[in-house]
Amino acid sequence: MNSAPEAGSVEVSALVTDTGGRLLLTASSGGALILPTGRTGADTSPRAAAARAVRRATGLTPGLGALLVCDWRPDGSVRHILDAGTVSPRTVDRLLEDCQNVFVAPEDLPSALSPADARCALAALRARRDGRTAQTEHGHVPPVLEVMDQFGIAPALHSGGAWTWYESPVPAGLPIRQAWVWLFVPDGRVVAYVDGKGTVGLPGGTLEPDERGDPARAAVREVREETNIEITQPVHLGYLMDRRPDGPAVARVRMAAVATAVGPATTDPATGTVHRRLLVPAHLVPDLCGWGAAADPQVHAAVTAVSGLGVRAESAPGAVEELPVAGLPAARPRP
């Protein structure tokens, strides 16, 4: 583009392919290859900007389809990529008469485009194939979105985001309502469960009367009921103060433990659901559970505490995996 972009404008590109799956790239004003690209403005919508960019590159007016990519970039700008369809071999020949245009195979994009542009173009191809819009950050799909898509996890807005974290014992007189467990396996990942609605959570729940206010007893029972996993004695991490609008404040305790054996998935007696059990890197747990960055101190406390039990969570595998329905043995970590 030869002129400065309008404030608040958005860069819009178009994905054009030939019948063999190659992508149309055109030379920018600086000579670099790019997807046909324009900008929105006061009188130019994203679709109009994409259509104008294609006309400028090809002389043809596209029948634009869906938004394929919405990409955030580190400078705060946003880029959209719209689907401009597939062109015939005869049209390809016509377009190549202009030396500004080339068609490039997907595997050759990293050498033809900048790294971020190549990632975005490939994301657009995948989005077209899958019939969906890709949300990317500098061409990368955020890991939490990949996991949500892979395992059918629903978006969540959790009231825990409003609770206050205290890394200390629960004060005398403050009722303990629930106990949840940062449950690690020996490779350093955390066990989270997915319920029938696609909601993710750490195992744990409400204290029963016969547990007499002992969160550790409740934690062991709840982990067994929800995940059928045996654990080491839970270690207290801290608590969340829940100042409820409909009643007195309560504490919701967080503990850490390590799995010693993983049994078959069984029905949770409280819900009648057989929960799926995932192994998740600790840093992904807050986003998957809907707690957000406010839970970062919890992550740090859990990772620190479990290191004393022989588990190095900071070197855990980065992949999220589902535990087998049949279960598996888990050796007690070395002290």
Description:
The protein has 335 residues and is α+β, with helices and mostly antiparallel strands. It has two domains: 11-141, Nucleoside Triphosphate Pyrophosphohydrolase (Alpha-Beta Complex), CATH 3.90.79.10; 159-329, Nucleoside Triphosphate Pyrophosphohydrolase (Alpha-Beta Complex), CATH 3.90.79. It has helices at 46-58, 89-96, 109-112, 115-130, 143-151, 215-227, 285-289, 296-307, and strands at 11-18, 23-27, 33-34, 37-39, 67-72, 78-87, 101-104, 134-137, 164-166, 176-184, 190-194, 200-201, 204-206, 229-231, 235-242, 250-262, 276-280, 321-322, 328-329. The strands form three sheets. Strands 9, 10, 11, 12, 13, 14, 15, 16, 17, 18 and 19 form an eleven-stranded mixed β-sheet that branches. It has a five-stranded mixed β-sheet with strand order 4-1-6-5-8. Strands 3-2-7 form a three-stranded antiparallel β-sheet, with helices on one face. The longest helix is centred in the middle third of the chain and has 16 residues, at 115-130. The protein is elongated.
Mean pLDDT: 92
CATH-scheme architecture of the largest domain: Alpha-Beta Complex
H/E series, N to C?
EEEEHEEHEHHEHEEEEEHEEEEHHEE
Radius of gyration: 26 Å
Q: Could you list the spans in which at least 5 consecutive residues all have pLDDT below 50?
A: 331-335
Helix content bin: 10-25%
Q: What's the quaternary structure here? A: single chain
User: CATH homologous superfamily name of the largest domain?
Assistant: Nucleoside Triphosphate Pyrophosphohydrolase
State the secondary-structure class. alpha+beta
Question: What's the structural domain tally?
Answer: 2
Q: What shape does the CA trace take?
A: elongated
The number of helical segments is 8
